[in-house]
Design a protein that fits this description.
With 799 residues, the protein is of the alpha+beta class. The protein folds into six domains: 4-78, Alpha-Beta Plaits (2-Layer Sandwich); 91-171, Alpha-Beta Plaits, CATH 3.30.70.100; 183-285 and 396-461 and 743-795, no CATH class; 313-376, Distorted Sandwich (Calcium-transporting ATPase, cytoplasmic transduction domain A), CATH 2.70.150; 479-499 and 622-721, HAD superfamily/HAD-like (Rossmann fold, 3-Layer(aba) Sandwich), CATH 3.40.50.1000; 501-619, Calcium-transporting ATPase, cytoplasmic domain N (3-Layer(aba) Sandwich). 47% of the residues lie in helices and 21% in strands. It is built from 26 helices and 30 strands. The strands form six sheets. The chain has a seven-stranded mixed sheet, with helices on both faces. A six-stranded antiparallel sheet has the order 10-9-11-17-12-15, with no helix packed on it. A hairpin with a 2-residue loop joins strand 24 and strand 25 (608-619). Helix 10 packs parallel to helix 26 and helix 25 (731-766) packs antiparallel against helix 26 (772-790). The longest helix is centred in the C-terminal third of the chain and has 36 residues, at 731-766. The chain is elongated and about 120 Å long. It is a multi-pass membrane protein. InterPro entries: ATPase_P-typ_cyto_dom_N, ATPase_P-typ_P_site, ATPase_P-typ_TM_dom_sf, ATPase_P-typ_transduc_dom_A_sf, ATPase_P-type_domA, Cation_Transport_ATPase_IB, HAD-like_sf, HAD_sf. Keywords: ATP-binding, Cadmium, Cell membrane, Membrane, Metal-binding, Nucleotide-binding, Phosphoprotein, Translocase, Transmembrane, Transmembrane helix. Residues 5-74, 84-146 form the HMA domain.
Length: 799
Amino acid sequence: MSSTIKKELILEGLDCANCATKIEDRVSKLEHVTLSSMNFATKTLTIEVLQTGDIDQVMNDTTAIVAKLEPDVVVKEKVITKAEKKILMLMGLGCANCASKIEKEVKNIDGVVNATVDFVSKKLIIEVRHKRELPRIVEEATKIAVRIESGIKVVDMEVHKKKEVSEDNRHEESGHEEDGINKVEIIRLGSGFVLFLVGLLMNFSPMIELVVFLTSYLLVGGSVVLKALRNISRGQVFDENFLMGVATIGAFAIGEYPEGVAVMLFYQVGEFFQSMAVNHSRRSITALMDIRPDFANLKIGDNVEKVSPEDVAVGDTIIVKPGEKVPLDGKVLSGTSMLDTSAITGESVPREVETGDDILSGTINKNGLLTVLVTKEFGESTVSKILDLVQNASSRKAPTENFITKFARYYTPAVVFIALALAIIPPLMIPGATFSEWIYRALVFLVVSCPCALVISIPLGFFGGIGGASKAGILMKGSNYLEALNNVDTVVFDKTGTLTKGVFKVTKIVNLTNQLSDEELLEYAAYTESYSNHPIAQSILKAYKNNVDKSMIEEYDEISGYGIQAKVKGKTVLAGNLKLMKKENISFDEGRTKDEVGTIIHMVIDQKYSGFIVISDEIKEDSKRAIQELRKLGVKKLVMLTGDNKAIGEKIGQQLGLDEVYSELLPHQKVEKLEMLEGREGRKGKLVFVGDGINDAPVLTRADIGIAMGGIGSDAAIEAADVVIMTDEPSKIASAIRIAKRTKTIVWQNIIFAFAVKGIVLVLGAGGLATMWEAVFADVGVAVLAVFNAMRVLNSKTQ
């Protein structure tokens, strides 16, 4: 999870592999340990412990475990420096299988902690232990990337970001990278296709026919064969270029010239459409997060200069004109306007801002001219954090993605060896069987075996789900959390700021005297509370709205723990709690306040009980709807934890229809209650904790999935939570689960579709009932359809 402490222990003298496994297993079962990993080769035990846990106790228990299993081993702690991260852009990356190979090899570079290739955004994210090793590691990673997929260009992301690219240059770059095929290639394929038609329609002699089809083949598929040979020379054998090269050359070898050319042509056309589909999806996802501002209008004296947002410092003043994106977080110094916040929060209703209001980067100024004081530099601004979260979310892969990546490594070589057996064994074992017939069947096997449909469409589906969720104001820190939301059976809520607004407000005035109106009773309360800084007093003054003439107040006396006594407009007024009423022997009907939810301020004027004011933390408008929607989605247990008193907690629980309410809890007691809920018998799904992200970090971290509410600009929320909801709406939790379920459905549709089609064609091919046409469809055709299907996740409905 996000907030853990990592420790590495060197076990000097460890020489028993079996004992190493036992140590790893027993340490993993210690309380608060989230990871225990033993590297027997380096004799290093890596442990991750929750920040809420007792790290010293875990270290002591670990040492005891080692001493018991291996008494002669000396345990020493390794000093860990924070991992440095480097992001490289792989410009021109077009092979999903190659992306997987690049990731695997870069992970094995000495000094690399972790490496992830995101095929969708074409990023290679490398984490290294020591910053001084970065130049060497980047150089090695670049060599690996270029070796595995020739033609790609490796660019440092920081350099790429700092480049001020003009619109023309940007268009040229996207044209080179995203078109997938240039005009020269189109002419080459067209020429090959014409020659192919000539060979089919004209009745040539065998030799001329071979020359025509061979020329056509070289025009259409020469680049594929060349790439396959280049990859084989580098030790990269089992890829789609090799499979297509062997299959089509094999077709020529058995005299099937037209089919060899046609299959390669179909393959190249399929690759073209696949490239178009993938690039379309990339552009669609990029468009979802088109919130990065291009410039800022920096005010320098009486002049305004257009600069890069990175060049603006905290304390500078910027001008935001109508129609422009707000480039940095700040405070409005002058002007009023309506802001379109939909790109940040997913809310379609514009928000009004005026002088003194906070303003967030990434929003769009609709009408007024705003002068803004910058409060955060660009790297720390809301838009920068959102972009970083969304763009790097793919580095935390879902279990399904990891499975497919691992599966692809074994699947293709296995099918190649089965194809080899299919070409050799039957002709030797079955009477009358010919090598040409079974080689053809084996070639069909080879064409089908490429796993691109899965390797491309599954990450694309998850990335689309993350992009769609962010458009709705829901930030996922990784596709692993998106997938985990499919299996939620318990949701635990904090109360204040999550289910309630977290703001004290006068919600009821009960006037029990005929001599005063409700407004007059509130006025007496406001005058009495006017000298107090307590939140309750402030809420009364806010409800009163008028100015308080303090010359009307005499004999002001604040009675600690009880309330206030003052002389207001010549009348003696008491405003306080039940204890004050009993202290002053004021009689009233206590039953009238029994069912009230909130803090009761009793009002006594000239020794006569006049009524009471209820001040409470209001329930959010859509809290009840959120609870109902979660139940419809199959969540079995809905629980609330609060530090508030029992009466208020239980009343809110009843109003919302919650299953359980635990009140009067301190922060550490919330963690204990969460662990108790997590350990209940019969619970199989994931436990989600939803809090405001500021004072709930320990519980957010401890839950299977931590969701922070109203996380805009909150460093604590973004750091501690796995999912950040940018608004204060609890109903967005149900929206997140709906997006997760739709993403999973589409991902599994692709898995089942790809396996089913490939399986059927493999069986038909082995039986001699499928030609290479069906085989190519099972490869590139299925990939194209899977990519288009994956893009449907972008249209996920959140309501």
